[in-house]
Structure formats: structure tokens, C-alpha cells
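Give me the fold.
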Amino acid sequence: MARDFTVILHDEPGELARLAEATGQAGANIRGLAAFTGEGHGVIHLLFDDEDAERARAAIEGAGLGVADDREVLVVDVHDQPGTLGELARELAEANVNIDLAYTATGGVGLVIATDDLDNARAALE
């Protein structure tokens, strides 16, 4: 299993470095990342394996930051070719699964999917 942490940062130089350095020093490997800015803040999604999640949270909080959201997510291996995302999204739609968040994982072609219906999502993609 994998966990997605949402961390809200100030939109200023060094904030992402502080976050990443803290988790790195704790030995928690960031497996995926999505980052957006707006209205003076950065919204960062970080992907961790379950075994790194507790250590990552402690490191983030120890750096004076907070985890705004922590949720279990799917990481689906996908083919790097045209139409793959459409096919996967269609399978989930036909299972009546709404995708709340999607981004790619590092180290290969993996798609991170957050939904409030993980059981149906897993079943649809098996």
C-alpha cells in the first residue's frame, strides 16, 4: 500500500527543499510528487510507501510543517503509450469510481490514484 500526504507550504524559495530534506534525513523515500502554487501557498502531494509513512510524518512535523491530509492511494503500473490513461480512466468510470487526484510516481511509469472508493477501484483494475 501507499500513502499520499498533502502538505501546504508558503510559496517562497527554500520551502520545498526544507520539506524534502526533512523526509530524506529521516530515510523516508518520496516515490511520487505533485506540486502546485496559488494565492501565496504551495500545495504539495507526496507519495510514500506505508513503511515510510510514519517516519515521513514525524520528519515533516519536526521541520515545523504539517500534514493537511493523509490518505491511502493506489499506485497502478501503466504502459507508457498513447491511450493508456484513457483506458484506465474508462475502466474506473464504468465501475462508478470518481478520481479525486492523479499524478505519476517516480522510478517507472506508475499512476497514483486517490478516490473515496478504493475497493471498487482495485476491483475494476484487476
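The CA atoms of residues 28 and 55 lie 6 Å apart.
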